[in-house]
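Sanity check

After download, print the first record. It should look like this:
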Amino acid sequence: MKYVTESESNHHDLDKMTAEQILRGINEEDKTVPYAVEKAIPAMTEFVEKALPRMKDGGRLFYIGAGTSGRLGIVDASEIPPTYGMAPGVVVGIMAGGDYAIRNAVEGAEDDFDQSWEDLKAHNITPKDIVVGIAASGRTPYVIGGLRNARKFGCLTGSIACNPDSPIAQEAEVAMEAVVGPEFVTGSTRIKSCTAQKLMLNMISTSLMIQMGCVVGNRMVDMQLTNEKLVDRGTKMVLLGAPDLSYEEAQKLLLQEGSVRKAVAYYNKNIKK
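Expected structure tokens:
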């Protein structure tokens, strides 16, 4: 197998570059990432279309990974409840080494083939659930083991990697690959590969949440009102559906009902003339 992520950088003598030269070099490489992700859209489409009916039937979406890849899964999962009002636990990020590994390197954690399945079982995984394995190299044992066991168990499985035809792709029902090419710093997948994985996770979860009904038009009508900025944004959304209310009335209704969706529904049922 050809490990593109570990191939020689297109840039040399980095240690002799100025700060601006380094930054421009990284930016030059980063510009190629969206084009690599674009090539993965057909596979991502297939995955979303297969995942959606499972989620509508109560299935959950699990991300498993190690190191940076694992952290990206946790970030994406943690953003779903406040952004779309989904209950915690509908989308779950799990990483090798557990929560401690979010901020600290855990030696050997990614090499444990069996631990990922134990971690998934701790969440009472069921055959209707979905498991996405994330690994820039595509060869992390923790991810391979989790995908193999999840697929055998009956879960829908997907993989996200930045090497073609990787080992995790062989274990997944749907393989999603963004081959971004050599990194600016040879082998440092926290740069382009990480960016590609983040883009793909954003695209997958956003597509699923929209199709789950969490967006009306182009607005997050179920977002959690966790700060003044979001209360203000929500109030302005309520005013779009209830234009005869004042800003203060719309905000009071929003806080009373707890979401834009519920506030507008209450307005239409009880206030609208």
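If your output differs, re-run the checksum step. Summary of this record's structure: The first strand starts at residue 61 and ends at 65.
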